[in-house]
Specification:
Order of helices and strands: HHHH
Shape: flat
Helix content: over 70%
Number of helices: 4
Number of strands: 0
C-alpha cells in the first residue's frame, strides 16, 4: 500500500540530501522511505526550481542555494580540520 507523505516531509528529505549531504542510505535508515521516493522527490524539486527560474530569472534558485550551502559547509569542515593541526 503506497504511503502518503506531506509536502513538508518531502521537502525535509530533499533538503537533507541536497543541502546537508545525507546519503540515500542514511535517509532510508532514519526515515524508512524508499530510494526511489527520495530520487523522485529530488528530481521533482529540481524541475520545480528550473521552472521557477524560467518564470523569474532574477529570483533565487532554491536548489542552487542548497547546493552552494552544502559546498560551503564542506569547505568550512575542511578549514576547521586544517586549523586543528596548526
Amino acid at each position: 500500500m503506497p504511503q502518503n507523505y506531506t509536502p513538508e516531509f518531502k521537502k525535509k528529505i530533499v533538503r537533507l540530501h541536497l543541502e546537508e549531504g545525507c546519503t540515500y542510505k542514511s535517509i532510508i535508515a532514519e526515515y524508512g522511505v524508499s530510494k526511489a521516493s527520495i530520487s523522485k522527490w529530488c528530481r521533482e524539486f529540481s524541475e520545480e526550481c528550473r521552472t521557477k527560474a524560467i518564470i523569474n530569472p532574477e529570483g533565487a534558485n532554491e536548489a542552487e542555494l542548497m547546493k552552494e550551502n552544502l559546498r560551503l559547509h564542506k569547505e568550512l569542515v575542511e578549514v576547521k580540520k586544517e586549523n586543528l593541526f596548526l
